[in-house]
Amino acid sequence: MGMLRFQSQAGTDQMSALDRLARRFVLRTLARFPVGRLQLVEPDGNRLLIGEGHPAAALRILDWRAYRMLFTGGALGAGEGWMEELWDSDDLVGVVRFFAANIEPMQALEGGAARMLQPLRSMLHSFNRNSITGSRRNIAAHYDLGNDFFRLFLDPTMMYSSAIYAREDMTLEEAALHKLDVICRKLQLGPDNHLLEIGTGWGGLALHAARHYGCRVTTTTISAEQYAYACARVSEAGLADRVTVLDQDYRQLTGRYDRIVSVEMIEAVGHQYLPGYFARLNDLLTDDGLLLLQAITIPDQRYHYALRQVDFIKRYIFPGGFLPSLRVICSGLGRHTRLQPEQVDDIGLDYARTLADWRSRFLAARQQVAALGFDERFRRMWDYYLCYCEGAFREGAISTVQLLAAGPARRGRPAAQG
Question: Number of helices and strands (H, E) in the chain?
Fold first, then answer.
């Protein structure tokens, strides 16, 4: 059980009655956190030390209303308070890690006034369903921020998914290219293969597979910005004879392919559409084919709880986003396909490092972000997003897997080494 120690007396007479109530609730809840240590510095200079041990974190309450945001919004309120500059920290990832390490008792923060507002948030979020038209709207809300924006912090291949760091001294670009090779080798790609990619991104994987492994590639996206960018890259690379870029929803795809890859796209499918997604993969893959999914996952014990919550990512970053569990993915493959999972590799800590590299580049590009027309609130929102994800990966609150599955005619054949 955590401990709460006051290092000086708070001047709570400066606070509104609501803020005093909120502060009392939040501090009482934090005192029950069993893991780690958190130091709070309040607006009047009062210092509080909560808990002991690791992970350790420190934050500054800049405005008493920060407690109100936590009381009425829970974890989402914490993110909104950061965006509004009601609190700050020199180690935002450390703060996220502290809360992620206490993820079960953290749910008590959702039990204050936040619980009364959750049904309203859930109702509003229900309008973000990933139907064919809804998916385009949800994807546009994130990816159509503009290619120039994403270029500021992604590596030159424009890979917006976890890299794989084979060595400690690998750069972001080297790790991104290594990830592409890992995928292509697991799929055993060669000139005789036709690869379907569901979720083009900015075309990095499609170009890499065609250029270095000689296969044909059909890749599809529903982002207008990404479609235009990928088409231009294919043309510039002189690979139009081998790479076809489509502007189509996965539900509208036809044909048969002996290789399918989908990198961190399943998070945009949505829980209620998973059966149709897996059934579509089944129809599109040949009997002797291979499928590789790279997916951000949540522990199965928290899957259904997370479905009911509208967190910071769903509210501000990915309107139609959700995280599957590995069990949900394997169950979907078992129920709706004839495919058999053959290999699963966890790369969650690689994603934490990828996010740290993205954040370093993002923070270094502060002036360029402003020049693109994004204000300080947006910059803090994205900083929080990157730290929120990195901290969650480092504490194991979420992870990322690469899952390789085979069609019935391939079973028993040796798997390629990534």
Answer: 17, 12
The answer to whether residue 415 is domain-embedded is no
User: What secondary structure letter does DSSP report for 317?
Assistant: I
- What amino acid occupies position 373? G
Instruction: Examine the residue annotation and report whether 389 is marked as an active-site residue of this protein.
Output: yes
Domain contains 326: yes
Q: Which residues contact 283 (CB under 8 A, 6 or more apart)?
A: none
Instruction: Round to whole Å and give the CA distance between 38 and 3.
Output: 10
In a domain, 418, yes or no: no
Percent of the chain with pLDDT over 70: 86
Residue 168: which residues within 8 A CB-CB, separation 6 or more?
Answer: none
Instruction: Tell me which H or E stretch contains 246.
Output: strand 243-246
pLDDT, one tens digit per residue, over 73-87 is: 888 999 999 999 999
Give residue 119's domain range: 4-124
Q: Rounded distance, CA 139 to CA 318, Å? A: 8
Q: Is it the case that residue 120 has pLDDT exceeding 50?
A: no
Same domain, 172 and 280: yes
The two structure tokens encoding residue 25: 């609730």
Same domain, 375 and 245: yes
* CATH code of the domain covering residue 298: 3.40.50.150
- Tell whether 28 is covered by a domain: yes
Same domain, 243 and 386: yes
Judge whether residue 129 has pLDDT over 70.
Answer: no
- Average per-residue pLDDT for the chain: 90
User: Cα Rg for the chain, rounded, in angstroms?
Assistant: 23
Do residues 306 and 362 share a domain? yes
Rounded mean pLDDT of 95-111? 84
Total domains, the chain: 2
Q: What letters, b where the CB count within 10 A reaches 16 and e where it falls short, cover 52-73?
A: eeebebbbebbbbbbbbbbbbb
Report how far residue 40's alpha carbon sits from residue 30's, in angstroms, rounded to the nearest whole number. 11
30/96 Cα distance (integer angstroms) = 14
| Whether residue 162 sits in one domain with residue 57 | no
Say what the alpha-carbon torsion angle 166, 170, 171, 175 is, to the nearest 10 degrees.
Answer: -10
Q: What are the strands, taking DSSP E only, across 347-391?
A: none
Q: Are residues 67 and 148 in the same domain?
A: no
Assess contact for 204 and 159: CB atoms under 8 A: yes
What is d(CA 298, CA 137) in angstroms, rounded to the nearest whole number?
25
Q: What is the pLDDT of residue 115?
A: 52
Task: Looking at the structure, tell me whether residues 115 and 156 fall in a common domain.
Answer: no
Among candidate residues 69, 102, 124, the one where a domain is terminated: 124
Do residues 38 and 59 lie in contact, with contact meaning Cβ atoms separated by under 8 Å? yes
